[in-house]
Amino acid sequence: MEAIADPRYMFTVANQFLMAAGRDPLFEVQLVGANKEVRLSDGVFSVHPDKLCSEVDQTDLVIVPAIFGDMNMAVTINDALIPWIAHQYEKGAEVASLCVGAFLLAATGLLDGKKCSTHWAYYNEFKERYPNVEVVDGSIITEESRLYSSGGANSYWNLLLYLLEKYTDRDTAILAAKYFAIDIDRDSQSAFAIFNGQKDHQDEEVRRAQEFIEQHYEDKISVNDLATMVAVSRRSFERRFKQMTGNTVIEYLQRVKIEAAKRSFESSRKNITEVMFDVGYTDTKAFRNVFKKITGLTPIAYRNKYNKDL
User: What is the rounded CA–CA span in Å between residue 96 and residue 260?
Assistant: First the structure.
């Protein structure tokens, strides 16, 4: 519901800002749907579009809100909108998807061969469903060829601000950011991501290696050791591991270590060095670099952000 109401709110308020500054309102904001009424959250909410898709011949910007529940079912339920979105793009409209609205945008085929952002928790599912789309890991906003997408949940506000600035100016976007209390230039959702190893596959040897990594991440583990443990050649093991998990063995090990470090920073009073050793790092610079690469924050910044006892 929020992903429908908030864009309307943002651009309607932007018109008020413009008029207060003695300027003409810029946006004509309309909700468009396939039906005259759309029920959400098991009927708790209902949305009444201003127009049906068939009544809109051409527009400048289409915002695809987040869908909900099972992604396959959600895309199927909304399949009547897919050709309409593609048609508007072909007629010159820009198209922006919010959060997992990227699944619906990708269903149009417009994102094939292009970059896209979506909620971090849906990366693997998105990659499996749309292998021809490049998911930008950790990104809040992507833009390519008049197509925009945002990261997870409330990060869509950053895309809305980005679009507002594009259509108006920086001052209007800053005013909106202050009004809605949004960090205007936040560009990563990595700090919010929780790494859950992809185990929804049938490769028993890879799964055994994953479980071993997760149970012994503080130890020194080599690719050769893992391949030998599961009785698979190193080359075959690395290929299968990447194919099943979406990560190389080293990337997977790093993510497991950093996830353990994040939990420690959130819940304990241990210092950076103590946590570093706990998760199996001995080089402070290496730990800091990997931590920042994965989370977008330094270890100190992450601890200060999420540990309420400090």
Answer: 35
